Amino acid sequence: MPAGLQIWDASGRLVVDFTTRLARIVGSAAIDGKPNQVSSPFLAQGDIFVAFQPTALWNFIDMDVSRPIFTIPARGGTTISWTYSPGFGSHNMPIVGTMFYGVK
Question: Among 27, 29, 95, 103, which residue has the fewest nearby CB atoms (within 10 Å)?
């Protein structure tokens, strides 16, 4: 007898089945406006993903902001690093927040 997992949405469409890879969050890090990196041995277990959640959205003057740029290693890597894009004016503010990372 086959075994697995299947999930349908409210409209009856199959959205997850046994061949779908489900993501697993393995950690988080505060992104504080400075370049940095984070390492975890769990990242070597699959394809790495990053989700960034800004702390605030509307407190920037003239939208002159620096955004975090994430460098994600190839499969088997264990370190995610980030830098910031350059600003465009004299009111530049780095976007800060939380990065969630994991594997799928």
Answer: 27
Q: 30-44, 72-86, 87-101: lowest mean pLDDT where? A: 87-101
Q: 3-16 as b/e, with b when 16 or more CB fall inside 10 Å?
A: eeeeeeeeeeeeee
Q: Is residue 96 part of a domain?
A: yes
**Could you report how far apart the first and last alpha carbons of the chain are, in Å?**
27
Enclosing domain of residue 96: 21-103
Residue 74 lies in a domain: yes
SS3 content of the chain, % helix, strand, coil (to 5): 10, 45, 50
* Single pTM value for the model: 0.75
Q: Which amino acid is residue 46, in one-letter code?
A: G
Cβ pair 76, 35 in contact under 8 A: no
Antiparallel, parallel or unpaired: β 97-103 and 24-31: antiparallel
